[in-house]
Specification:
N-(1-d-carboxylethyl)-l-norvaline Dehydrogenase, domain 2; binds uridine-5'-diphosphate-glucose; alpha/beta; EC 1.1.1.22; binds nicotinamide-adenine-dinucleotide; NAD binding; UDP-glucose 6-dehydrogenase activity
């Protein structure tokens, strides 16, 4: 089939390349000329495992074209995926202006029957708004259908998640569109749920909000475990053995970040508010997360009278391992608070992107983990990076001024840390000593 994907961000690029692998011809439209130039040369614009070889293969087999020309791309395609950004506004509502702009652009170029698909995460009612825009721009109703097809991929495992997902959700109000969409996805052999557009739109927010709530739940339990001297990992293990609960997303830590959970939980609360519904449980999950990501600061303020002039080292800055993405990473909030309290911040993350250097140019970014700990008062472990698991704890202790560790991801065993000479250790629900 002839496919057009609009937006070469995380989702757009992964979707475009994945579709190209199963016998489709894909045109990927991106408005940023610099990104298009790089992609044409086989340079991946995002860090994602397996993306570069896939991009190169698709280009060499001429299965994909990158362009800024949306008009031509729409005219030449049967199915058009919208995969542009949907950021959160100050009031937690979703900024759908990029989606609406694209809907307007598409409507100018509809020559034959097209299926327009929202891959972006969009609030309930967006499929209808897109239909209305296209209709208001004078396109005949038999020339198009609009389908909601939310995406569930995770960064770091994006290609595998796209090609081997657990479900494909199609929100359709036309038999014709639903049958073409099912045909498109048939090679993936993934179960397909066909439902109404509002249901599909809500499924996406429900999935992310449920997982975020699960994380906030285990984090609250971790905080309580610290007080009553219980072990959160054992609790999570036992909980997860119950198939109704599942072991996934029960890893306690300094909270969730990323481009989706923080944004989509707020959006769901805002969607509820729009319809006069107070979504209390998700509001609480957000509240818990906002406190949890600053837990290392509370620990430091209990431990030291002042942080003024103290060197604090952050190990791992990205919102999770396997990505260079720092969007909404807990580390950003920790750094902000540390700087406000007068601390000197050093950090190590081999994946660190220029983005964080633009936000916080005053930090010391070290290429070597052991350089980052020199003269440090305390280490805060923010991301479960392999380098951190493998660090030589004795060597680290020797280089530090005062070897304290705040293990924000429960990476180490307290007894092991103690045996290597650390003077203090704080975990997220697995005990502490000073
Ligand atoms: N990142 C994820 O892991 C993930 C997973 C599932 C769903 N989503 C959802 O998918 C959507 C996209 O997310 P993302 O992380 O890929 O966003 P992103 O911001 O990284 O990428 C969006 C891209 O669209 C381009 N764009 C914007 N307007 C355009 C236009 N008019 N024409 C052509 N290109 C245009 C931008 O330049 C940018 O490159 C969001 O709604 C997000 O919530 C993201
Ligand atoms: O047990 C856990 C699992 C995750 N996290 C944190 O949760 C955040 C999000 O992790 P993850 O879900 O792996 O990353 P994303 O790439 O943001 O993927 C989520 O957001 C995407 C965008 O909507 C969805 O498509 C995915 O299904 C959904 O998992 C990260 O900060 C993790 O550190 C925890 O703290 N504990």
């Amino acid at each position: 089939m002839k496919i057009c994907v609009i937006g070469a961000g995380y989702v757009g690029l992964v979707a475009a390349l994945s579709f190209a692998t199963f016998k489709n011809n894909v045109i990927c439209v991106e408005k940023d000329q610099e990104k298009v130039d790089k992609l044409k040369q086989g340079v991946p614009i995002i860090y994602e495992k397996g993306l570069e070889p896939l991009l190169k293969t698709c280009l060499s087999k001429k299965k994909i074209i990158f362009t800024t020309d949306i008009d031509r791309a729409v005219k030449k395609s049967d199915i058009i995926f919208i995969a542009v950004g949907t950021p959160t506004k100050e009031d937690w509502s979703v900024d759908v202006s990029q989606v609406m702009e694209v809907a307007n652009q598409i409507s100018q170029s509809i020559n034959t029957y097209k299926i327009i698909v929202t891959k972006s995460t969009v609030p309930v009612g967006t499929q209808k708004r897109i239909k209305d825009i296209i209709h208001d721009n004078g396109v005949q109703e038999n020339k198009y259908d609009v389908v909601s097809n939310p995406e569930f991929l995770r960064e770091g495992r994006a290609i595998n998640d796209f090609l081997h997902g657990e479900r494909i959700v199609l929100g359709c109000d036309s038999e014709k569109a639903s049958s073409i969409m099912k045909k498109l996805y048939k090679p993936l052999r993934t179960p397909v749920i066909v439902t109404t557009p509002p249901t599909a739109e809500l499924i996406k927010y429900a999935s992310n909000a449920f997982l975020a709530t699960k994380i906030s739940f285990i984090n609250e339990l971790a905080n309580l475990s610290n007080i009553v001297e219980a072990d959160i990992d054992t609790i999570a293990y036992a909980l997860g053995m119950d198939k109704r609960i599942s072991p996934e997303f029960l890893q306690a830590g300094i909270g969730y970040g990323g481009s989706c959970f923080p944004k989509d939980t707020k959006a769901l609360v805002n969607i509820g508010k729009h319809y006069d519904y107070d979504f209390r449980i998700v509001k609480s999950a957000i509240d818990v997360n906002e406190t949890q990501r600053l837990l290392p600061i509370d620990i430091l303020l209990n431990h030291y009278e002042s942080l003024e002039g103290k060197i604090i080292t952050l190990l791992g800055l990205t919102f999770k391992p396997g990505t260079d993405d720092i969007r909404e990473a807990p580390s950003l909030y920790i750094i902000k608070a540390l700087l406000e309290k007068g601390a000197i911040v050093k950090c190590y993350d081999p994946m660190v992107s220029n983005e964080i250097k633009k936000i916080y140019p005053q930090l010391t970014y070290c290429d070597d983990l052991y350089d980052s700990v020199v003269d440090s008062e305390c280490l805060i472990l923010c991301t479960e990076l392999d380098d951190i698991y493998q660090m030589d704890l004795k060597k680290v202790v020797k280089k530090m001024m005062n070897a304290i560790m705040i293990d924000g991801r429960n990476m180490f065993d307290m007894d092991e840390v103690k045996s290597k000479g650390f003077k203090g250790y704080y975990s997220m629900g697995k005990g502490s000593y000073t």
